[in-house]
Amino acid sequence: MRNTYVRKLGGVAAVAVAAGLLTTPTAAVADTAPAVLGTSQGGDYRSEACDSTTAPGWVGWTNYGPTLTAKVDGTGARFAVRDETTGTDPVFTGEAQAYAQQAKTVVRGLVDGHSYAWHAWALQGQQVSASSADCRFTVDTTPPTATVSSPDFPNGGPAAKYGGQKATFVIRTADQAPTGGTGSGVACVRYGFDYLGVGGCDSRDAVNPAADGTATLALKIPRWGTNTLNVQVLDKVGNVANASYTFYAPSNPNPPKTLGDVDGDGVADILLPDAQGNLQYIGVNASDTTPNATIRALASPDHNGWDSYRIVHRGWSNAHAPSSDDLFLHQPGSDYLYLYRNFDYGALAGNMVGAQRPSTCVDGAGAQTACPADFADDWSKAEQIVAFGPAAGGFDPSLLTLEDGNLWLHAGGDFAFGRAKARKLTTTGDWAGYDLVAPGPDAAGNLALWARDRATGELHAYPVPKQADGSFDYSALADPKADVVATGFTTAAYPTLGSSGEGDADGEPDLWAVTPDRHLVTFSGWSVPKDLGALR
Question: What pTM was estimated for this model as a whole?
Fold first, then answer.
């Protein structure tokens, strides 16, 4: 059928030339067939099967149909499409002008599951070139199917896991083929609790199903109570199937309690942004930099990413959530300090409030006193902020800030309501030029402050022992130059320095650092460095 169609076109041109109505066609148009560029869906070429050996590509659903594109030496192109499933030829013909040597046309009304072939001729006025080679494609506009189940949270059965624990979910997919045809095949499965953003198979939340179409996931339950796992299954041309699984996760009656733990798994966490501004949780006992969880950049307070914030933890919140650290978030120079109430095992899905600057000052004996003249009523002067553990007892965390070269302690109450009290620990201004690190209490409840001298790379460790009456002795903080315990921690070697929040007694690494090439290095105490590899 195609050759007959070409002969008819050629015959029209030949008669016109014999009658003197047309000039002799140029060689480029008369002898050179167009180069077919392929079939596209939107701006994405789905098929370049423009020869006799390449298998047809797939085209999915669009508002208008696939686009056929040919490169021509002439003013335009003529297109013809035949249905190879039914043998109908042609099912579409059309012409299009050429711009920058490309002519395009959109084909409507194609049948799901059918295979098609198309070709083109270059036009120069009424002159017609030889035909191009065939391009082939198959239409798939039928979405796949998806179902979700969980052996740990079976429908109608008792839950086997608690909120904050990992559970197994099984996603079963199938490529639902159209009647009388085949489908393009399942490409990937995307998943997310509560929120599933826009993305494709190259996104972080995508996995490839196994050969039998199933994807088995081990996912941490973000909170106790009602949870919903949302699922998308994409086939190879972008058709989408949606599914969800809602279940109830009970609260753990005996949750693990580890200072420095944010995600509720009983292991202290290192919190660092990735290269895209998402927030990563990496356990201190990790063997590499694979995160336990990644919190999307959109969940940050300004929705632009976590990399502009100081992220401070290592101090429990209060009796409401004693198993996971609260987080404090501060942008340098900002007068505002965010407090994240960690009721969902670090999912950061809400509970973000302001941490109030204390309005009450106390002296070394804990008695209320007039605040010094340099006391700021907001957080804008805080050059550094570290969490100092529950320095006032109980579950309430304390914060240590560096302001104008001096150390301030904020402790003894809920920051959300401004109930903490401020105490100026130093008055000499000698702490300028030091990076503060708070390792957390040891097994006896004694605190310590570590600091890196940015000029020399020396690491200092200042003991803050707990006294018989429950208070702490801060006298070691009078001289920042004392108590050198290690050298070599230069800013050139380790631009970022922090602590996991656990004391030496548990044997876990305490100090961690990030190198200029974004490798994460952990230490046991401040020695025995271990390179976990490059951060994402």
Answer: 0.69
